[in-house]
């Protein structure tokens, strides 16, 4: 039996076990997938188990995507670019870290039939997921990326890796084609970024990395104003699809049946 797990804190909300266990069954793989909440001091011990395949595959979520890096033996180029790891496995005998969030974000945009070539984007927030989003936006050939964060310095520090981004003050907006909420504001139903989007003249795209609730107030206000909205569900599904492929050399299906099983059960 190939063991997999996701580590994070908190982790109880994670749908990853349900998703991967579904794919194991569908693809006749003798595997199982669990979730574990742990503390930072326990990370090294658990990652070591990848070495002898006691753990076959691992996902990492908030707040450990950076904290696992010192325990890797090799890492992908995307990890070097983003400093963020969400997938670990034994690659050629080494504990190897990769990042499939970039793929997840890219696929979520492509799947929604959106072309971002030459477009401008404003990202709200500067947390752990933002380097992956910026990398994906570069792959999608956007022309301009603005970042706005409540704590200005945190946005500034993103410039060390991505010197072409422009930081704007919190509370201000720019006229862009795509607005992305990557903050945790919206996790509670009444949460609201308190930003004013009333003067947008044409149809824009609003993307919220949050997928539960499926429609944050950021998205529901945008929808009422006639803009296209995308939530974080597809990013979640496609980062998982890519992780599964890295572990098992097989790209599992993402389809309506799976989505209904995951969310309506
Ligand atoms: P991560 O672990 O991914 O880094 P995080 O640091 O908690 O997560 O990031 C959450 C993001 O939501 C940050 O950009 C945070 O802004 P700060 O850097 O100023 O903390 C943002 N955020 C959280 N609560 C917020 C609030 N009430 N208003 C505005 N931004 C908020």
What's the helix-strand series?
A: EHEHEEHEEHEHEHEEEHEHH
CATH class of the largest domain: Alpha Beta
Number of strands: 12
Overall mean pLDDT: 95
Query: So how many helices?
Result: 9
Q: What is the molecular shape? A: globular
List each distinct ligand once.
2'-monophosphoadenosine-5'-diphosphate
| CATH fold-level name of the largest domain | Rossmann fold
CATH architecture classification name of the largest domain:
3-Layer(aba) Sandwich
Largest sheet: 6 strands, mixed
Number of domains: 2
Oligomer: single chain
Q: Give the termini separation.
A: 26 Å
How much helix, percentage-wise, in residues?
25-40%
Characterize the structure shown.
The chain is an alpha/beta fold and 265 residues long. The chain has two domains: 2-99 and 234-262, 3-Layer(aba) Sandwich (Rossmann fold); 102-231, NAD(P)-binding Rossmann-like Domain (Rossmann fold). The protein is 31% helix and 20% strand. It is built from nine helices and twelve strands. The protein has helices spanning 16-26, 43-48, 77-82, 101-111, 130-139, 152-157, 217-224, 233-248, 256-263; strands at 2-8, 31-37, 57-60, 74-75, 87-91, 94-98, 120-124, 144-148, 166-167, 178-181, 205-208, 228-230. The strands form two sheets. The chain has a six-stranded mixed β-sheet. The protein is globular. The mean pLDDT is 95. It binds 2'-monophosphoadenosine-5'-diphosphate. 2'-monophosphoadenosine-5'-diphosphate binds next to loops.
């Amino acid at each position: 039996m190939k063991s997999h797990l996701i580590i994070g804190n908190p982790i109880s909300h994670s749908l990853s076990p349900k998703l991967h266990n579904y794919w194991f069954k569908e693809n006749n793989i003798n595997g199982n997938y669990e979730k574990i909440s742990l503390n930072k001091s326990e990370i090294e011990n658990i990652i070591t188990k990848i070495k002898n395949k006691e753990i076959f595959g691992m996902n990492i979520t908030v707040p450990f995507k950076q904290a696992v890096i010192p325990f890797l033996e090799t890492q992908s180029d995307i990890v070097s670019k983003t400093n963020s790891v969400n997938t670990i496995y034994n690659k050629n005998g080494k504990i190897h870290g990769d990042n499939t969030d970039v793929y997840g974000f890219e696929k979520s945009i492509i799947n929604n039939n959106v072309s971002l070539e030459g477009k401008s984007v404003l990202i709200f927030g500067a947390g752990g997921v933002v380097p992956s989003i910026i990398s994906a936006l570069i792959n999608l050939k956007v022309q301009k990326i603005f970042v706005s964060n409540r704590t200005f310095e945190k946005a500034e520090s993103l410039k060390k890796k991505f010197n072409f981004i422009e930081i704007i003050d919190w509370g201000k907006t720019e006229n862009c084609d795509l607005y992305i909420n990557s903050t945790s504001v919206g996790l509670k139903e009444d949460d609201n970024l308190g930003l004013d989007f009333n003067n947008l003249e044409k149809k824009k795209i609003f993307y919220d990395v949050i997928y539960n609730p499926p429609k944050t107030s950021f998205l529901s206000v945008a929808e009422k104003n006639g803009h296209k909205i995308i939530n974080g569900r597809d990013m979640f599904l496609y980062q998982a699809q890519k992780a599964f492929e890295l572990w098992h050399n097989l790209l599992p299906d993402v389809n309506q049946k799976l989505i209904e099983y995951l969310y309506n059960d």
